[in-house]
């Protein structure tokens, strides 16, 4: 498994908080290193765990937690329903890390489609992306299958050595029902794949526009 | 003359290479500003911007490309104006401006803004590529850097973010 560095913003006020945060990330062989900075409220974790796993561990300390950035030359994010994130970790492998809520339990197809046009919802995003020049054996944008558990949540962390993040920014991410006999499954949700902040590129905790703090945003219920 | 106008419009699109689209919405639910805008990059590098935004208050509204397309925390998480050359804020015709400074859009008394402008700074490829970033429509007028308050040269003092969307690929032939 490839490791990625993810930067979290964690609401910390004192040294005992730093200890609690470190403790929440102990005893996991998937975590290589943890770097906590009390002054900037930043926690950088180098691991092969999913963002959701790490966020749950950090939230178990009772503190507010938000994702601030992903390591890599570029990072991207696509927001559908409860959100999906993908990040390019190394030049050779693309890590797709995400969570989708509100599904019926069962398998679903995830894919990258050619257009980022949501003017008619998921109908206007075109076909699964497959550039003419590609030498991949599969449909280039076909990321495979993910499974929704009993609570309706599909959480996944896939590694893909075909996809290049620079080729898919501005296109769209789609989750659909499993295809049947070469017929595409019904598209359930989609989002445009957008540029996201890398490590330490997102130091703000207050939005200059309306004075809303990061922690106010984190406290809002997600629709 | 009419024939000429029709023909030139046809030529604009016939030689268009790349296009991008943004579907604007208001994740906060406070402004209910929505819209659809298409960006078409012509062979000479100029980008044509056409579309409609509705639900606005009458008058001018700041219209910018923000650095990130991340809508995780609504329009807040799209970052600052797209500014790869680290310049101060300005108007679309100024030489000193952010790449993302597209000035204002004007809403009618009914709150509708019909957009049909061009810009020769933004692009759909290369260093000034706006694809994957966000369009943000602001609640207030962009003072184009001339308002004289500290925020003028940073943001145009255009107030809250009333609507936003990720710029996606429409056609990359």
UniProtKB/TrEMBL annotation, chain A:
The answer to whether UniProt assigns keyword Iron to this entry is: no
Pfam families linked:
HMA (PF00403), Sod_Cu (PF00080)
Report the Gene3D superfamilies cross-referenced here.
3.30.70.100, Superoxide dismutase, copper/zinc binding domain
Matching SUPFAM superfamilies, A to Z? Answer: Cu,Zn superoxide dismutase-like, HMA, heavy metal-associated domain
Q: Report the catalytic activity.
A: 2 superoxide + 2 H(+) = H2O2 + O2
Q: Which family does it belong to?
A: In the C-terminal section; belongs to the Cu-Zn superoxide dismutase family.
Q: What is this protein called?
A: superoxide dismutase
User: Which species is the source of this protein?
Assistant: Aromia moschata
UniProtKB/TrEMBL annotation, chain B:
Signal peptide range: 1-16
EC number from the UniProt entry: 1.15.1.1
What GO molecular function annotations does the UniProt record carry, in alphabetical order? copper ion binding; superoxide dismutase activity
Q: Determine the domain of life of the protein's source.
A: Eukaryota
Question: Entry cofactor note text?
Answer: Binds 1 copper ion per subunit. Binds 1 zinc ion per subunit.
Cofactor(s) demanded: Cu cation; Zn(2+)
The UniProt catalytic activity note for this protein reads:
2 superoxide + 2 H(+) = H2O2 + O2
Q: Which keywords appear in this protein's UniProt record, sorted alphabetically?
A: Antioxidant, Copper, Disulfide bond, Metal-binding, Oxidoreductase, Signal, Zinc
User: Which Pfam families does the protein's record reference?
Assistant: Sod_Cu (PF00080)
Q: Which InterPro entries match?
A: SOD-like_Cu/Zn_dom_sf (IPR036423), SOD_Cu/Zn_/chaperone (IPR024134), SOD_Cu/Zn_BS (IPR018152), SOD_Cu_Zn_dom (IPR001424)
What SUPFAM superfamilies does this protein map onto? Cu,Zn superoxide dismutase-like
- Family stated for the protein in its record: Belongs to the Cu-Zn superoxide dismutase family.
Q: What does this protein do?
A: Destroys radicals which are normally produced within the cells and which are toxic to biological systems.
* Record protein name field: Superoxide dismutase [Cu-Zn]
Species of origin: Aromia moschata
